Amino acid sequence: MTAEILMKNIYTFANILSQAGSDIVAKWNHTSLNNAFNWADYCIKVFQQIENKPYRGEIEKHMASMTLHLHPPSCLKLRVEDLGKARVILERTLLQNPFLPEKLSRTIIEQKQKTKGNNLEPAECQEIVTEVTRVSMLMKTLQTDEDLYRQTQLISEATALLSTVISLSSCSSKSQRFECYVYNLLSRLAKKVGQLDIILKMLCVLPSDTTYTDGQLQDLHNIIVRWLSEPQNSRFLVTSSKVLIQEACRYHTDLCQSYLDHIVGWAERLEPSYNEDDTNFYSWRYRCTESSEKGNDHRTFEKLCEHLENLLNVNKQCQLTVKHTLQSLKEKSNFNVYSDILKRLNQIAEY
Predict the structure, then answer these.
(1) SS3 state of residue 339
(2) How far apart are CA 115 and CA 227, in angstroms?
(3) Kind and range of the H or E run holding 248
(4) Which of 16, 87, 219, 330 lies 20 to 30 angstroms, CA to CA, from 293?
(5) In what helix (H) or strand (E) does residue 180 lie, and over which residues does it extend?
(6) Which residues are CB-contacts of 265 (< 8 A; sequence separation ≥ 6)?
(7) How far apart are CA 74 and CA 316, in angstroms?
(8) Rounded to an integer, what distance in angstroms lies between the CA atom of residue 165 and that of residue 74?
């Protein structure tokens, strides 16, 4: 077997393991399960062949860089020694994943009872199992358990995720490859959860691992801010915690501008709606351009002003930027939404 085929096969198993630790496993059936365990058995044989070979270090190096190419993106860091425990790691990953169908869970437990388990202590594989299921466990917590979604929980989860991601920065010598991985990971989280709270909190905490450098942390924070500045991602700010947005903006001034740009884009889509039977002559309504935007009650004039008020409270510099921007936009025409926005903000300030 050539080195190229060997790495391709290991990558196949790594992808399967990544799926086993994600919400994708909800679509698995018994055929998928059997296929996964067959690949795990294959990796055990591979490990037995390469365990004491002089080229093991080279394979280890390629496996590290492989992490950044997995789909779906995960925090998995697969090493050569893990190949020898592939079946156990896969089994425990599946059983720890909250998205695993109950029928497959029963099948795994029954098989485990027939083979009388394994000789490995749980702690021996727990680290990699935690890595590969980190994102799915986080998604489940944020989606279903509001009680756990408190400040302390968020700090803990954000610290763990930041620590894991920063440890992967050395997996590739190409910074662009790492940035692409981070973008994919953040996009997956945002789309599944529907808000950015955990991502915003990552900008406000430090990694628990002390081996990182200030440069690595700064680079990762810059990547996150760049990701947040893209329109398809900044739209999630509307449904995120305003307190966390404000906190992140205090740490990263570039985020203030991205936040403001998003709000201005929102304001540009507000158009007057004239009311014949109302005490107010008109009100501002959000103009939907896509069917997916319909029913978005959070895109109201009132909510927009709340977000602007939040931005005004970040710091003095941000306050001046917001006021200058709104005043400049107001002066572009005799009638626009910015006049009413400034009036509302002045009323809030006086109150």
Answers:
(1) helix
(2) 47
(3) helix 242-251
(4) 330
(5) helix 175-193
(6) 231
(7) 39
(8) 9
Which DSSP letter does residue 335 get?
S
CB-based contact 158:220 (threshold 8 Å)? no
285 membership: H or E segment, kind and range: strand 282-286
3-class secondary structure, 271? strand
Residue whose C-alpha is closest to residue 82's, from 119, 39, 44: 44
Cα separation, 93 vs 247, in Å, equals: 35
Which pair of structure tokens corresponds to residue 157?
């989860």
H/E stretch holding 273 reads strand 270-274
CB 154 within 8 A of CB 197: yes
Beta carbons of 279 and 312 less than 8 angstroms apart: no
Place of tokens 């680079």: 219
- Give the up-direction half-sphere exposure of residue 317: CA atoms within 13 A in the CB hemisphere: 9
Q: What does the alpha-carbon distance between residue 286 and residue 298 come to, in Å, rounded to a whole number?
A: 10
Q: How many residues are present in the chain?
A: 351
Q: Cα separation of 60 and 339, whole Å?
A: 61
> Tens-of-pLDDT digits for all 351 residues of the chain?
688 889 999 999 999 999 999 989 999 999 999 999 999 999 999 999 998 888 898 898 888 888 888 888 888 888 999 999 999 999 999 999 989 999 999 999 988 887 765 555 556 678 888 888 888 877 776 765 555 555 677 888 899 899 989 988 888 778 889 999 999 999 998 888 777 989 999 999 999 877 888 999 999 999 999 999 998 898 888 888 888 999 999 999 889 988 999 899 999 999 888 876 656 678 888 887 664 455 556 788 999 999 999 999 999 999 999 999 999 999 998 889 999 999 998 886 654
Single-letter amino acid, residue 349 = A
| Helix and strand totals (H; E) in the chain | 17, 2
86 burial (CB, 10 Å; 0-12 / 13-18 / 19+) is buried
